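target protein:
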Amino acid sequence: MSMRHSGIGMTSQRTRMRMVERLREQGITDERVLTVMNTIPRHLFVEEALASRAYDDVALPINFGQTISSPWTVARMTELLRANSSLGKVLEIGTGSGYQTAVLAQLAQEVYSIERIGSLLTRTRIRLRELRINNIHLRHADGLLGFPEVAPFDSIMMTAVTTQVPESLLEQLMIGGRIVYPKGSQKQNLCVIEHTSQGFIETILDEVKFVPILSGVISK
């Protein structure tokens, strides 16, 4: 691993370990998630000028009006998606910087991730390729339509806030699967939707703050 990847000073492995300890103190209990977050160099997923803040518990801008979620948010959403079981085929709506995608890829068999902003996806594709993460399938498309040709998925994560999950995504979730997403507008909460044989069950959890989900595709 190069010095750029391993980090120095405020981007070092020691700083990453402190982030993981803080996540434990904040209530994250899934040790598999914490182990993965200890290995992935989060500073590579933000602008170089912000690298020294990469392991702070804050969301950071990544251009195009988007943000990389705070470490706690990434850990919590991943923990909820896993529910202490193995992840198989995961659909992620909103690739963004690719950090959440990279975390999921270490825990799932396959990750299918959709991003609507073409220029953002181009940067992220290069970054993930540099890290040699090979079980990720990226698509430039409207995430609200999902990835129907490879559905159903056993897990779906949405990384932007919405007032409700569209039917198109619910239809792509297999029975026994779950969706984790931020719900609301001004007041937002993490929610889990479980697909049971009797239908869908939604549980409202922690308060969060995300950028809104949008439909359509931006090429540049």
